[in-house]
Design brief:
By secondary structure, the chain is α/β, with parallel strands linked by helices. It has helices spanning about 10, 20-30, 60, 70-75, 105, 115-130, 140-150, 170-180, 200-210, 215, 230-245, 255-265, 280-285, 300-305, 315-325, 330-340, 350-360, and strands at about 1-5, 35-45, 50, 80, 95-100, 130-135, 155, 190, 220-225, 245-250, 265-270, 290-295, 310. The protein has two domains: about 1-160 and about 345-360, Rossmann fold, CATH 3.40.50.2000; about 165-345, Glycogen Phosphorylase B (Rossmann fold, 3-Layer(aba) Sandwich). The chain has a seven-stranded mixed beta sheet, sandwiched between helices. Strand 9, helix 11 (about 230-245) and strand 10 (about 245-250) form a beta-alpha-beta unit.
Length: about 375
Amino acid sequence: MRIGISSTSFIKNKKIDGIGVYTESLVNNLKKNNSIKIEEIFFDGFHFQNNNFSDQPNPFFSAFFPFGMHKNLESKIDLFHSTDYFVPKLKNTPVISTIHDAIMIKEPYFANKKLRFIKNFLLKKHVKYSNHVIAISYSMVSDLVNYWKIPPEKISVIYNAIDSFWSEKSTVIEKEKTLNKFKINKPFFLFVGTIQPRKNIERMLLAYDLLPKEIKSNFIFIIVGKTSILSKDLENKILSYQEKGSVKWLSYVDKIDLKNLYQSSVSLLFPSLSEGFGMPILEGFASEVPVITSNINPMSEIAKNSAYLVNPYDIENISLAMNDLCTNNELREKLIQKGKQRLSFFTWETYLKEILLLYKSLLR
């Protein structure tokens, strides 16, 4: 099989986000299968291209988005898999799209007003040109049917997989090197994600404030995440906490340092208000730290009973969870063991088995 994978999310960006991580891992794992040839296709301004060719799309569509008829692309592949919302309109080649969330359409108040119309247009075109859609959680299916008007028979659920990298134990020296690099000298709670309202960072800060004095004096809160268009007010609040010395905000952190931070943390805080999946939950499980996350889908679907589930709108509930994981070692150990067991549902072996069956079904 010759599979085209849209790789703009990691080829064109040095500091890749969640979609980029997912796509790069997919490409690397598919390349291990000798029966598959991967074409890494990226969108460069007005056309798709790779190292061997550049297509000639319909200029009208491509003036804004890569939706032209791409004959040159079709001659190179048997199937195209879009992972990042860049989708060519192909006549004779099946197209599969992975949709990572329905937030832009379902919960537009979490999106930038100026970009919302353009992004929604892009997402709808994305679906229109796809023969089949992959949802990354079961809770997404009803959203895709209700908000995107996708027929259920065109949807398959395939959970994201986590790389074995996150389960590799760092040495004490490696962890100390990272902690010294960022001048971290106290135990800490950890949040990982983009700085934006739906991540619920403001309530996490307030929950930290509610902790008993003896805990706040011994534990700090570390936030790892890049800024977003919607984050200006939130950034100012984080900076005000940072000035007090109780919070440390690290913007972009490389993969090695991030793994060391995970493995050094007291707990991962991830009580998000809205997600498509919630990959940090799995990274926390793999790092063998207890995870606090939301009792709403898809976070509760991904975590099941392997995390401390909280009402993300209840500041006292979040604070209680933080307090419990500082003081109850038996609970900590129980969640750590359950998290390790839960990871068996999110392996690349399982993912590749399911994705290859889907590829083949569309090529019959």
